[in-house]
Amino acid sequence: MALVFGAWGAWLGTQAHAQESRPTETEKQDESDYAVTFGRAVGMPGQAVALSVFFTRRSDVPNIRKLRLRLSFPTAALSYDKLEAAYLARRAGLELRAVQGGSGNNGTLDLTFTLPESSSREFPNGQIAYVHFTVSSEAKGGAISLHPEAWIEEKPIPSPEFRARLEDAKIIVTTSPILVGCFFFTH
């Protein structure tokens, strides 16, 4: 019995040491000067879905004036509807432009976010846009990756000039209705 507990204790000790050496999510975020991330989007076939776009910059790194994103998607599953500025982008006077491209079943969407040269404001730090799509009525359940690419001041992410993080953008297609329950009304 002591042998079992001794081996179990040694194993726990190695696990604790292994966990200590792994960076936490906060540490990973702190390593980046800039980050482009996306909110979780869930939609049903035949319905509209909005994907949130976030940009963050550490306070001790230079302000930027231009961010460009490219999203690639299967046109058989998604169709682009519109690009909408989020509150922080409107407040900062950010100019947004969307150009749709691609061919066949491979659609692309180039999004440009520009802070005008005449502006003395900083590029917004937080949610900057919503990208609206419609999920095709023939779309199957599962995740659709939008394979994002990004450029800060026309320099690609990743770049040797700065540390930046770009997360994947996904739209989850579900065939079961999305139900929202409230704890207070279910008791």
Q: Key features?
A:
187 residues, alpha+beta, Immunoglobulin-like, five-stranded mixed β-sheet, five-stranded antiparallel β-sheet, 3 helices, 13 strands, globular
Can you summarize this structure?
The chain contains three helices and 13 strands; from the N terminus they run ααβββββαββββββββ. The protein has helices at residues 2-21, 25-30, 87-92; strands at residues 34-38, 41-43, 48-57, 66-74, 78-85, 95-103, 106-114, 126-135, 142-145, 149-152, 155-156, 164-166, 170-173.
- Bin the strand percentage: 35-45%
User: Which radius of gyration do the C-alpha atoms yield?
Assistant: 21 Å
Low-confidence stretches: 3-14, 16-24
Total count of strands: 13
CATH topology: Immunoglobulin-like
Shape call: globular
Description:
With 187 residues, the chain is of the alpha+beta class. The protein has a single domain (32-175), classed as Immunoglobulin-like (Sandwich). Helix content is 17%, strand content 43%. The protein contains three helices and 13 strands. The protein has helices spanning 2-21, 25-30, 87-92; strands spanning 34-38, 41-43, 48-57, 66-74, 78-85, 95-103, 106-114, 126-135, 142-145, 149-152, 155-156, 164-166, 170-173. The strands form three sheets. Strands 5-8-3-1-12 form a five-stranded mixed beta sheet. The chain has a five-stranded antiparallel beta sheet with strand order 6-7-4-10-11, with no helix packed on it. Strand 6 and strand 7 (106-114) form a beta hairpin. The longest helix has 20 residues, at 2-21. The model is unreliable at 3-14 and 16-24 (pLDDT under 50).
